[in-house]
């Protein structure tokens, strides 16, 4: 958002024909919400620059804003602003001004529980493989508690992994490769981490796999005397079907 996009702007061709008037003015989301007595939702509020944040102050404090060449826009009953913000340690975030913070009530949000996250992954990706989605969800949740990780992965990483996994055989190496593609840009290591991001991912996957119940297909494969199992370096072990 910029100040202009938030409040509105004049359409140049119409201005040329009819001048600066309400007819040539295109309302922005803030102005539209005030006129309708509706709710304005702003995602990642603390990524907005200070000038844009300041535009919200008169609307929240006095219920009105001034539009040059148009006049005063008053908020109808029911007007409300709801916003989200990332933690301050996230890159490209800034602190809200004291004046703006004073006009918001804070509702902290945490991650969904494991079953809810698994359900979201399944719904968003169409991967209807409970065993695979449980493994993916467990991997993502482990990134949030690993001692070398400063910022763990969100549900977006889980949906990314699941989308990739839908095109694979869903064995251990497929989970590992999907994690290599999905996690490095969505998690952040601590400065004092003794491992790189791929080593941390390997450690997390090995931990999750070691406690994951063996699937029925794997039980059948392991019970077949003709099957042989290679060492870890060459292992191709099915866990997701």
UniProtKB/TrEMBL annotation:
ATPase dynein-related AAA domain location: 20-104
Record field: transmembrane: none
GO molecular function: ATP binding; ATP hydrolysis activity
Pfam family for this entry, one: AAA_5
Name of the protein this chain belongs to: MoxR family ATPase
Start and end residues of each stretch annotated as Disordered: 212-241
Domain of life of the organism encoding this protein: Archaea
Biased composition (Basic and acidic residues): 212-222, 229-241
Gene3D superfamilies: P-loop containing nucleotide triphosphate hydrolases
């Amino acid at each position: 958002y910029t100040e202009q996009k938030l409040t509105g702007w004049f359409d140049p061709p119409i201005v040329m024909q009819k001048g600066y008037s309400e007819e040539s003015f295109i309302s922005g989301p803030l102005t539209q919400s005030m006129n309708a007595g509706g709710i304005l939702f702003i995602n990642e509020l603390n990524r907005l620059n200070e000038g844009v944040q300041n535009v919200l102050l008169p609307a929240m404090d006095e219920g009105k804003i001034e539009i040059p060449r148009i006049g005063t826009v008053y908020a109808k009953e029911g007007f409300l602003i709801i916003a989200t913000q990332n933690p301050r340690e996230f890159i490209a975030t800034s602190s809200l001004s004291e004046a703006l913070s004073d006009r918001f009530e804070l509702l902290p949000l945490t991650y969904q529980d494991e079953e809810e996250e698994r359900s979201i992954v399944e719904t968003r990706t169409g991967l209807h493989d409970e065993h695979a989605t449980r493994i993916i969800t467990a991997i993502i949740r482990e990134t949030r508690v690993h001692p070398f990780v400063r910022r763990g992965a969100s549900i977006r990483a889980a949906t990314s992994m699941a989308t990739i996994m839908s095109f694979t055989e869903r064995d251990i190496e497929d989970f590992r490769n999907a994690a290599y593609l999905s996690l490095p840009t969505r998690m952040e290591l601590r400065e004092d981490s003794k491992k790189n991001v791929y080593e941390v991912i390997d450690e997390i996957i090995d931990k999750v796999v070691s406690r994951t119940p063996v699937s029925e297909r794997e039980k059948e494969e392991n019970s077949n005397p003709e099957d042989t199992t290679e060492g870890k370096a060459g292992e191709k072990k099915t866990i997701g079907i």
